[in-house]
Amino acid sequence: MLHVGANTLCGTDLRILRGEKTRGVRFPSVLGHEFAGTVAAVGADVQGFAEGDKAAMCPVIPCRRCVHCLHDRENVCANRRAMGYEYDGGLAEYVRIPAEAMAAGNLFPADADIPLEQLALAEPLACTVNGHRRSGIRLGDVVLVIGAGPIGLLHLQLARRAGASAVIVSEPSPSRRAVAAKLGASHVVAPMELAATVEALTDRTGVDASIVCIGIPQLVNDAIALTRKAGNVNIFAGLPADGRVDIPANEIHYKELVVTGTSAMHRRDYEQALRLIGNGEVDVASLVTDKMPLASVVEAFELAQSGTGIKVAVVP
Ligand SMILES: [Zn+2]
Ligand SMILES: [Zn+2]
Q1: Which residues surround ligand 2, an ion (CB under 5 A)?
Q2: Does domain 126-261 sit in CATH 3.40.50.720?
Q3: pLDDT over 90 (residue 242)
Q4: CA separation for the pair 133, 127 (Å, rounded)
Q5: What are the C-alpha distances in Å from 119 to residues 38, 45, 93, 200, 287?
């Protein structure tokens, strides 16, 4: 059992609350899938953890037996069960870690020096590590990140670390644009200026890779239009309802675009995310703009919904 130290709120939590996401969600259940804390009690068969240890939770528990798990896709396991969806999550004072999660190694020991709200962000960073790999970004690439929410700001940092020669971030909010500039974006633009910026920077050929980090259908079309021939378009964000978008399939055909999706993470992505945070290679501290007590969780959700900050951490 973990004493929750911090649980950061996520767009998926908001989509569950609004009833837009129902798949894999048990009702009623305690939300919260981005959390870390201190071990409060240790079960009889548990090894490797002691009371008082800090630990961080990879919330997606794969079955390790289905065809997807066997083909290196445990993130889309057919029988996956997740904390904050099927199992009660981290928006509580204490959270019980299921035996199957302990058996799969989903609870990771964490460095006592790292603040717990930063450890909680290993979850979105792990999903971003997965998306980064899917987006095929290579040394010298010009990368387009659409949206400077938490995910876009993490993608920006991973692209820079991977050696992108330029990272263009498109974002309507001036305050979020300022954070993107601080975290290393070479070009930060409002959506209206995006097409002209890409044209000027790439001599009209388009970017090498683009990542859609905001769930607005039209943005998928923008990414397809602004990515060069044989480039990669990654659809990271979940779209509302069934996610239907009217796309020009001929653009994919003639441009030989590679269109990829990203869903959740592998346990190895989570382990890598913890290392990137521990080494200070990815700045997650700048993303935590608000901390609220558990008693103010409703206000915390309203704040997250408003989009004025970046990440809201609920601290029991
Ligand atoms: Zn999340
Ligand atoms: Zn599986």
Answers
A1: 62-63, 66, 69, 77
A2: yes
A3: no
A4: 10
A5: 11, 25, 17, 39, 12
- Digit-coded pLDDT (tens) for 56-68: 999 999 999 999 9
How many angstroms separate the alpha carbon of residue 126 from the centre of ligand 1? Answer: 10
**Measured in angstroms, how far is the CA atom of residue 101 from the centroid of ligand 2?**
13
Give me the CATH topology for the region 2-116+265-315.
Answer: Quinone Oxidoreductase; Chain A, domain 1 (3.90.180)
Look at residue 19 in the predicted model and tell me its pLDDT.
Answer: 84
125 Cα to the center of ligand 1, angstroms: 9
Q: CA–CA separation, 290 vs 292, rounded Å?
A: 7
Q: In this structure, what token pair is assigned to residue 195?
A: 């097409």
The segment(s) of the chain belonging to CATH 3.90.180.10 are 2-116+265-315
- CATH 3.40.50.720 range(s) for the chain read 126-261
The per-residue pLDDT for range 289-310, each reduced to its tens digit, is 999 999 999 999 999 999 888 9
Tens digits of per-residue pLDDT, 246-269? 999 999 999 999 999 999 999 999
d(CA 238, CA 77): 18
Tell me phi and psi for residue 15, to 5 degrees: -65, -35
Nearest to 127 by CA among 240, 292, 238, 258: 238
- Indicate the pLDDT class of residue 134, thresholds 50, 70 and 90: very high
